[in-house]
Amino acid sequence: MASDYVKPRVPTVDKIAADERAAKFKQRSIKTTAKAAGLHLIISMIDLTTLEGSDTPGKVRMLCRKARRPMPDGDCPTVGAVCVYPPMVPVAVEELEGTDINIASVATYFPSGQASLDERVEEVRRTVELGADEIDMVINRGAFLAGEYGRVHDEIAATKKACGDAHLKVILETGELQTYDNVRLASQIAIDAGGDFIKTSTGKVSPKATLPVTLVMLETIRDHFLKTGKMVGMKPAGGISDAKLALRYLAMVKETLGDAWLSPDWFRFGASSLLNDVLMQLEKQRTGRYHSDRYLSIS
Fold first, then answer.
1. What's the pLDDT tens digit per position in 252-294?
2. Active-site residue, selected from the candidate residues 66, 160, 169, 235
3. Catalytic residue among 154, 199, 208, 277, which?
4. What is the pTM of this model?
5. pLDDT surpasses 60 at 299
6. Of residues 136, 154, 196, 277, which has the active-site annotation?
7. Which of 126, 106, 113 has the alpha carbon at shortest distance from 55?
8. Is 59 a catalytic residue?
9. Is 211 helix (H, G, I), strand (E, B) or coil?
10. Residue 150: which region, alpha, beta or left (left: phi > 0; alpha: psi -120 to 50)?
11. Sign of the alpha-carbon dihedral angle for 60, 62, 63, 67
């Protein structure tokens, strides 16, 4: 059945301007109390993730315990969510009972998305029934690159419907979209289809999240908000492994979208290795010296 969705008209992205503006955020330096506040905020925005074929219930339990108490001897917030494959959702539900940490799960045959729509939607339903609060789905990049924008929109909309009360994060896999114009268009299609968040990457394809691509997506969110008054969340994922870079992302969010988006309700990092570096930076601020990473659990 042909889709009724009409391809949205979106601005052409000036690649040189986007790259130059994003590069300016690399020069930002955040220090003292502002840095400490930023580091705590980053922790609250992390989706602590394990998405490996070798995942076991024991590994997921350890991850959940770290999510509940990232720094055993320090005062810091819990993370935003724990993200696992669907079979591990019940383990996370058990470990995180009584907390406000969200349980996220990748679905729609992550990371390739190579399955029929019926199969992808059914996986989403099953995963939500298991207890997931958030679903991270991948778009059909083949359909997008073939110009089948109505199909991409309708598949996202069907996935959103299958989520019920769970939030939907739409992964564009920007490393496969080839141009900033495609990133801008895919972002708008995902928003039009009801995505609660738009997300850069699965973390399985390079390049992963970058400042310029994230900027293009943030500007799409901004323009949609100015037009409709509707807020949409953002999640860069993959390649963000140190606190200094994460702070620069926060500066970009603040300057592009404003303070309202500086909340785990509207911005997340898909970067588990980031957590240990943030904890080491907090320890440096507290004691004046870096904590050895030998004293931090692997995430």
1. 999 999 999 999 999 999 988 899 999 999 887 776 666 655 5
2. 235
3. 199
4. 0.93
5. no
6. 136
7. 106
8. no
9. helix
10. alpha
11. positive
Q: Which residues pair with 93 in a beta bridge?
A: none
- What share of the chain has pLDDT > 90, as a percent? 80
Write the CA distances from 228 to 10, 32, 172, 199, 224, integer angstroms.
15, 38, 22, 20, 6
Q: Which two tokens stand for residue 100?
A: 């406000």
Alpha helices in 167-271 (DSSP H): 180-192, 211-228, 243-257
Ordered by start, the domain boundaries in the chain are 15-295
Average pLDDT over residues 60-87: 91
CATH superfamily of 15-295: Aldolase class I (3.20.20.70)
Residues 220 and 191: beta-carbon distance below 8 Å = yes
Any residues with CB less than 8 A from the CB of 31 and at least 6 apart, and which? none
What is the Cα–Cα distance from 49 to 289, expressed in whole angstroms? 28
The Cα–Cα gap between 108 and 137 comes to 6
Helix or strand or coil: residue 73? coil
Please state the φ and ψ torsions of residue 197, each to the nearest 5 degrees: -130, 155
Q: Which two tokens stand for residue 157?
A: 């909309």
Residue 235 annotated as catalytic: yes
For 98-142, how does the pLDDT look when each residue is reduced to its tens digit (9 = 90+)? 999 999 999 988 988 888 999 999 999 999 999 999 999 999 999
- 63 is written with which tokens? 């991850």
Of 17, 87, 37, residue with least CA distance to 285: 37
User: Has 136 been annotated as catalytic?
Assistant: yes
